[in-house]
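Figure-free illustration: sequence to structure, shown twice.
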Amino acid sequence: MSRMSTWQEFAEQAPELAAQVRARLEAFQHHVLATLRRDGSPRVSGTEVAWRGPDLVFGSMPRSRKAVDLQRDARFALHANTGAPEDMVGGVDAKVAGRAVEVTGDEHRAWVEEVKPPSPDSHLFRLDLTEVTTTGVAEDQTHLVITRWTPTEGVRVYKRA
């Protein structure tokens, strides 16, 4: 299994990249979450994310398909909403991947009291990160700039024509 990090650990290791990705995630309310169905095929769902302490988290309706998928196989990929094409000017496309860990017990109860989700049985997942990637176009518009972070390799930048 790949090494994982909390959002805070990622932000401490790669503050500029974390700020870029957080800005993309905060620019829009809705994002696309990919999970794995029982047969291994992908499922995409809309989701909203938030920060809770050192963690990037999201909630889910009780027994939703994405929650059941993640309870069975915690692997996920989250693609930040890119918005309209003009919203990407000077911006980056952002993705995070890792394992979603369901939060239970006292921490879940505190979240329910604070956030007041539609149901007290709503799920809360902490996103442990194995990879964060941004893709953008270079200022001179001649190539893509892909920035990738992993807990083991840190930040690496790739240029692709």
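We now fold a second protein in the same way, so the two outputs can be compared directly.
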Amino acid sequence: MKKEIRIFFTALMFLTRLPVPKFTDHSQEYLEKSARYFPLVGWIVALISGLSFLVFNKYVSEDIAILASIIAGIFTTGAFHEDGFADVCDAFGGGWTKEKILMIMKDSRLGTYGVTGLIGILAAKFLLLKELPKFTPDLTDPSLNIFLNYKNFLLVLVAAHAISRLMGVLTICFFDYVTDPDTSKSKPVTSSKPSRVTVLLAIVFALLPFVFLSWHFALAIIPVLFIAWRLALYFKKWIGGYTGDCLGAMQQVSELTFYLGVLIVWRYVI
């Protein structure tokens, strides 16, 4: 149990800027196994974002609350995934060979494609999150408990962050890692394929939020799996596999795809 706790805090240290106990280090063994807790770390990021939404929505407005939740998530992770998405936009937008793409991806400077991609994905996230509370059944008969009023909204946030991080774990499992491992932010995690136990635990943590939601919401996982698979194949076609930045882009795209899938389910299925 103590070992698993250390592995969890290693995952938390790797994916976020949240403080961890002093005994947490960069042990290669724990870093390689930390992927099993990536979806669980997603829970934490989602709950921080959701709490920010509830506070600002109570005292200011829904639009500012949505913006606050996005900013809270960015500060919690240190823009870890957004940075990867921007680098992927720059690299695949400006590079036409594997060597050129990998060279651009290593460049710390942000180009036009990266800026445009960030603006686009943050705008899309804002608009999708703005729609979600409108379909929250709890608001038809609100109670004095704000957590109960937005129960489904908060659970969807948790599910989105968990499922989107699972896509990264599955990508590591089924595709090859490329680029110079000595300069990659994901080297410790991708240095070896995750074990069956790691993948199984990641799947369990990713699917657990759906136990508290209507089964219809599980339908939103289907487009996420499809888009993540196609994105991974796209990376494989151009560079032969994935990089740490590709995993960041995978998380961001998967999260948005899940929100869109949930909206469609809420509007046309439930």
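Summary for the second example: The chain is about 70% helix and 0% strand.
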